[in-house]
Structures are given as structure tokens and as C-alpha cells.
Amino acid sequence: MLVDAHAYPPALAQGAPGPAFFPRLLAVLVIGGAAVLAARALRERDVATHSGGGTVRLFGAAAWIAGFLLALPVLGHLLALPPLVAGLMWLFGERSPRILAGVPVAFAGCVHLLFAVALGASLP
Amino acid sequence: MARGWLRRLAVLAAIGSIGCGAAPGEVPFPSGPIQIVSWATAGGPSDLLARALADAAPDYFDGRRVTVLTRQGGAGAAGMQYLKGQAGNPHVLGVFTASGTVNMATGRIPFVPEDFTPILRIQVDPFLIAVRADSPFRTLNDLFGAARARPGEVSIAGFGAASAHFMGFQRLRAAAGDPDVRWIAYEGSGDSAVAALGGHTDATHNNYNVIREHLRAGTMRVLAVALPLTALRGVPTYQEAGYDLAPVHWRGVVGPPGLSPEVRADLRERLLATIRTAGFQEYMARANMEYAVMDGPDAFGDWIAEEVETSRTLLERLGLFMNEAR
Amino acid sequence: MTGFLDGLLTALQPQNLAVLLGGSLLGVFAGAVPGLSSTVGLALVLPVTFALDPVPALLMMISIYMAAEYGGSITAIAIGVPGSSPALATTFDGYAMTRRGEAGRAFGISLFASMSGGILGTLLLVAALDPLSRAALAFGPPEYFGLGVFGLAIVANLVGNDPLKGILSALLGLVAFVVGLDVLTGAPRLTLGTTVLMDGLGLVPMLIGFFAIAEALNAVAGRRKPVEAVTGMGGALPPLGDLLRLWRPIFRGSAIGGIIGAIPGAGATIASIVAWNEERRLSRTPERFGAGEPAGIAAPEAANNACVGAAMIPLLALGVPGSASTAVLLGGLTVQGVAPGPLLMTEQAPLVYALYAGFIVAVVFMLAAGRLGIPLWVRVVSLRPQILMPLVVAISLIGAFVLRGNLADAWFALFFGLVGFVMLRRGYPLAPAVLGLILGPMVETNYRRALALSSGSHTVFLESPISLVLIGLAVISFAAPALRSRLRLGRGGA
């Protein structure tokens, strides 16, 4: 949050007086809030610990979703959805191969039928 | 995905056509479904035009499916990017409007008119200036006169800033010698009509279809309209009020870049037939739109270039040039 | 009255009944799927309505609108993800009840409150079309500013244990709103020079990111397990008595929804959060709100369905859409050759009566679709989280795409998912950020608009009684929790 707050002001300062007023006000408030937070953190020495395996799974999941979004326009939803769902299930700890294979494919089929066929939405 | 399919279909059709004795290398059109890209708000006038076209077009596109593809975002840039990426593919069309040229002029969107192939301008939606029925203003000159007498105290509500509506009004204001009328931007045309109806602003810069019911009910009056409308007989045009210009909102169809003149002419003929159907005419009447067809080979393209240029000059004069968008 | 009976007969014709039924089912679906909303549902059926006559076209659209406002609560209660933004407030208590093993009861309350709200909103539309449309006209920039400030003050009740973190969260939402084109000048702000950010980050990506993706990431990272499969809830619906006891929150919620819904641009999301907050304020046990209080479901759900009828007021009386959903509706009406406005009631009375009756029938179908669906939702809730959460994430991403046909929205959702994850881990409440994003435009734009109209004089905010009252209420609402805790502390010390 602190790092965030430091990144705002330069970007927020641009623009004509009218549109810049509110962002500037926000920037001041965010910096003020962050300052109080920092003061408090110094007083209490916040000890935040990260557990190793959790972080790997976290970034794995985020990267898997990002990969899906990259693949979606290329592969189309019918091909891109099953790996997304199966991968996330695996990360959540599902290990049964029947479920890992069956549910994602069935899900992609349902999405296709509901969105693309029934509703006529233009999915990639 | 869709693009890959189209390509494959196009190739298949090409192979087929050679067998049928068509000129080699020439793909008969249409060889697949037609897409009309809509980057405007769902249910808004541009989106309705896209849908009305899609409804009436199949008969003139050899019975092919014609669908509307929604691609909103980035002030239209998302849809335009998609269309531009379809270079040379006559199966993808887009509804292009005055907003597109204004956004090009402001530099908000990274496109130039040459990024698209103009095909056919279909309708215009003239701007007008309206007030609440009990307003002291009877004519455009009353409004501008009051602004000259009390600079900055006369306000007009309109859709957006550095938008097509904004440009339309600024052009009129410039012709009137820049009286200090305050432009209050609203999120939509309806909102700007309500602002005037509620007495929050002195007037609204709007379109006929938005305020029609209020005119019929007598709750609003039109001071002047850019172009003569049959429904507004008796209301002076800008020209009759002494300002020799006619800013309008307009909508038409463009294609992706790289369409040959023959393909353009073919598309134009098919679209002309489409907009002459009874169904499309009914839509035009119900939406209170005026036909303003520009079907000469270069007419629509010239119009687009001219509009961008007019907006750009005006923006420079107002000191409102935006940053170039990437 | 005969007009209404004729309208009812029209609505009950077989073709119209079929259309209402289909619309209700589709509406519940559109509402329940995160990313889809009443607006997207309406936009998707718009081409279908072209082929229908005016009355069935209208009935199809209003049944979707009505049912979608209910459908949002299903996902909110089942998995804590608002199926559409007006169900945000329902997640506070609805999901808490589910985690307590009372999903069936929560579903029942939400359905009953939605039905009641839908009917009360329709009655309001019938009874107060004229006065409320005039009230909507009275709402100018100072009044909108007051309403926005009043809404933002609700943050004070959403901050949780650490007010500073709550306020920072709200500020984050306000910063997120600034991204995009400034309405008043058309200048791009915080867009980093790209077109992708020009239309802003969007509420739906934020909701999906915060409530679906961040929660999923949190569960994957495995520190906390909020998604233990909930067991032993059965499909037990609450007895009618249990529901009728909630009549007060339902009435209050409907009244709030009815009034806020009639103001163009305010909308169901704001109405339902205000309803939740007012219920909490009036409660003798405000600490139970957010921890599974039935009234905390009843009030916002009544409010967002009451908004449907109320949102028709500016549309029918003024011909102006007050929300994204009514804007699509107006498009559909335009194509049908129906022009809403001051003359509609005199010129097209049968259509208007059919619309009124259609709302009532739509509520009945919504009730039926909802009631039949509850056992299904309960089974979805009891799916193992390893299966349920990936599906929620996947369908949310698809929903985010369908919203505008733009993949950028799915990327924004992932971005908000990561931000939300960090916030969750650090103990920042998420709801204030959503509130900031929703109310930021109302506050900023109208503040500047009001000053532009008053030539920079701040007294406009004090001259308008509506704005004065709303700002006063905001100050009270913001100061009240602090005062209350100080009082309590004082008493504890004595």
C-alpha cells in the first residue's frame, strides 16, 4: 500500500485544473492515510510472514489465469476453458483424474451452449 | 477464432469457385457470414443502426447470416482495432459515426480515416438547441444575446465534452462570435435533456429523437435546428437564424482497410438495397432518423476527412488538443 | 382499474405468458452469473425483441430486468460473489448465513424480499408516476452531490475493525474511478496514454476480481479456508412466519429502492447499499449486521427489486433512461415504435397497463423460477470447493468478457483479483473500495458541475434543501460509529 501511495502523485498531478482537482485531493488523502499507517507500523513492527508453498500456488494460479486470457483469443473458448478449469482444480488440491478431466470439458460445453448458442453472445 | 474460420471458408470457397469456372484467385463475395461491429452503447442509436442493418441485410448478402459483434471500450478503440485488423476482409463492417471523427481529431484514439474503407453514409441526426417551455429565450439570438450581456451565466447542457455534441455547439458558438455560454457536460443526451427540463441549465444541445415527446407534450421548445426537419416545420434552421452552418450527428458504414474499389462498390450496392427495404425504412421512421445517403464513390470518405479536419481546427482554436493516444 | 384488468388479460395471453416465463428464466440466469447483469441480459435479447410485437417485446424485457435483480442474490448468498452489482450488499449477510449453514433460509428470505420489493416497486410506479418524475427532475447537481456524499458516508459502517484501512480502501476505489475520460472535459486521466483504460476500469471487473478471483487466490494460497464445503444445510426454506416477521426491513428497503431508483443515474446498487445501511442503523443490534442478520438480506433485496419499477418512472414519464438497463429498454422500445414520454399514458394506455400487469406476472414467475431453483443452488453450495471455485473463476472471466465483448475487462478482473488478494491478506475490507468506485463519479462530477453552474460559489450545496439534508445525514452517519464507540468506552471506564 505504501509503495502504491508513492506511485500515485506524479501520475495524478497531470491534467487541467478542473479534472486535476479531485485526483490531487485523493492523492493528498492517500498519502496522509499511508503516513499514519507507516507511523503505526513503525510503532508495532508488523511481522508479516509468507508461507512458501502458498505463494507458489498463488502465483501459479494467477499465472494460469493470465495464460488463459492470452490463449482465449487464439484457441477460442471451447479449447481454452478446460485447461483453465482443470489447472485451477489441481491447484486447489483436486487429484481425481475423472473429475479433473470430466468437469472442465462438461463445463466448457455448457458455457458454449448457454452463451454462444442460446444467447448468441460473441465469444472468441 | 472467427477470423480463422472465415479465412478457411474463404479458401474453401475459392477452391470451389475455381471448379465452377470463376476467375482464378477471385473469391466470390460473400463467402461466409457477415459481421457488423458495434462499439457503441447497447441500445443506443448507433447500436440500433447496426442491429437494424443486420436485420435487413441477409436478403442482399446472398442469404448469409449477418450478426452484430459487440466490441465496446476505449471510446470505440476496441471495436475499431478489431475492424482495422480485418484488412482486406469484406465480411466485417462497422458502424462509424461523428463521434469517431471527433475522437480521431482529439487524438484520443490512435486511428486516422485511412484506417478504414468508407462505404456508405446512411443517416443524419441534426443537432438542435432546445429550452424548457417557460424559458425566456424565444430565439437563438435571445440565448446568445443573454450570454453576451451576462457572460458565463447562461448554461447549456450537452452530451460529453470534446464530443460530437460539444463540437456541434462550439461550431455554432464560433459562428455567433464566441458568446460566453457555459457548456455543462452530461453522461448522455437524455441526461442533458433532463438538466434543461429540471431547470438546472438554461438550454440543452440535443437531437430531435431524444426530446420529441417533450416537444409534442409542449414541455420543451426548439430554438433552432441545424437542418430542416419535416417534424419541426416552423422552427428556424441555424441558417435562417443567421448562422451559415449545419452541424449534424451522422452514421454510416465503413469496412476494414484495403478493400478494392470493386469490392467497395459491391458492398455499397448491397447496403443501398438493404436500407431501401420496408423493414429498414420502418426502423428509420420509428427512430426519427433522416436518410442522408452519401453513395458516390468518394463522397463518404471526403465527408469523414472533412469532419476530422473541421474538428481539429476547432480544437486548436479552443486550445483543447488532447494527448496522442497509443 | 378496468385499464389494469385489461392489461392483466393482455399479459395473461398464452404468447405473453410464454415470453414472460422465458424472460424470467433468462433474467435469473443473467443475474446469477457474475459479469452478466440485467443490462447484459437485455442487450443479448434485444435482437430477439425486434421480431416480436410491442407488448410481448416489452414484457420480455421487463421480466428479464426484474428477474436479474433477484438472480444476483443467488450467487451472493451461495458463494459470496455478487452475481450482479446490486447484490453487493446481499453478500454481507447472505454469505455469512451460508457459512453458518443456513443457505436455504437465506435463499428463502432473498426470494421473498425480492418478490415483495418487486411488487411494491410496481405499485409505486402505478401510484406515483407523476410526483416521482417531478421529484427526479428536481435532482440537480447539488442534490446528486449530496446523495453521493451520503452514500460514501456508509463506508463508516463497512470499515470493520480498523477505520483507517476502511478509509484507505474507499480511497483506492475513488482512485480507480478517476481512471478514464473525465466526463466534464473529456480529458483522459490516469490512462497511461492507452485507449484500453479510456472507459475506466469498470465496476464489474472490480466485483469479479475482488469477490471471485481474490477469494479463490486466497483459498489457493491456503492460509485461510473460507470455502470449507458447507454441510448440513439441506434445502430447508424458512417458514412463512419467519418471512413475514421481516416486513419492516422489506418495506423500508422497498421505500428506499423506490425513491433512489426513480432518480436517474443513481441506481439499484446504491439503493441496496443504502437500504442495508439504514437497516443496520435502525437496528438495536447493529453488530449482527454483516454476520448473518436476516434483515441484512431482506432490506437490500427488497430495495434492488423495488428499483426496477421505480427506474421505469423517468423512462415512462420523461422518456429518459436513468440506468444502463433502461437505456437498452429504451432502445428496444424505439425499434418497436413506442416513444415513452409525457404523452405515453394518454396515447398508449393499454400498453402501459400491460406493462404494469406484466411486472406483477413477472414477479410471480420470478418467484416460481427462484423457488424451483433453490434446491439446485443449495446443491451448488455444497459442491466441494476444489470444484466450485475454479468454475466460479472461469465463468466470471467469461462473464467479464461478454459484458462489453472486450477481453480487457477480464484482465482488469485479474488485476483487481491480485489487488483484492493483497487487501484481504492485510486486513483491508473490500466493500468500501467498491462503494468508492460507484459513488466517485456521482460526487466528483456533480461537485464540479454544480460549481460550474454557480460560478464557483459553494453556497449552492446549502441552498438546496435536499442536498443539505443528505449532507447532514452523511455527517451524522459518518460520525455516529465513532461517537457510539466513545460513549460505550466512556461507560465501560466508569
Describe the structure using short key phrases:
heterotrimer; B: 326 residues; alpha/beta; D-Maltodextrin-Binding Protein, domain 2; 2 domains; globular; disordered N terminus; C: 494 residues; mainly alpha; two-stranded antiparallel ribbon; 22 helices
Describe this structure in words.
The complex is a heterotrimer of chains A (124), B (326) and C (494). Helices cover 81% and strands 0% of the residues of chain A. Chain A has 124 residues and is mainly alpha-helical. In chain A, α1 (2-12) runs antiparallel to α2. Chain B has 326 residues and is of the alpha/beta class. Chain B folds into two domains: 2-124 and 248-318, 3-Layer(aba) Sandwich (D-Maltodextrin-Binding Protein, domain 2); 125-232, D-Maltodextrin-Binding Protein, domain 2. Helix content of chain B is 40%, strand content 21%. Chain B has helices at 2-19, 45-56, 77-84, 98-106, 140-149, 164-175, 189-197, 208-217, 261-275, 278-286, 299-318; strands spanning 34-38, 66-70, 92-97, 117-132, 154-159, 181-186, 203-207, 220-225, 248-255, 290-294. In chain B, strands 1, 2, 3, 4, 5, 6, 7, 8, 9 and 10 form a ten-stranded mixed beta sheet that branches. In chain B, α2 links the parallel β1 and β2 (66-70). Chain B is globular. The relative contact order of chain C is 0.19. Mean pLDDT of chain C is 88; it is low at 223-227. Chain C has 494 residues and is mainly alpha-helical. In chain C, α3 (38-50) packs antiparallel against α4 and α6 (103-138) packs antiparallel against α17. Chains in contact: A-B, A-C, B-C.
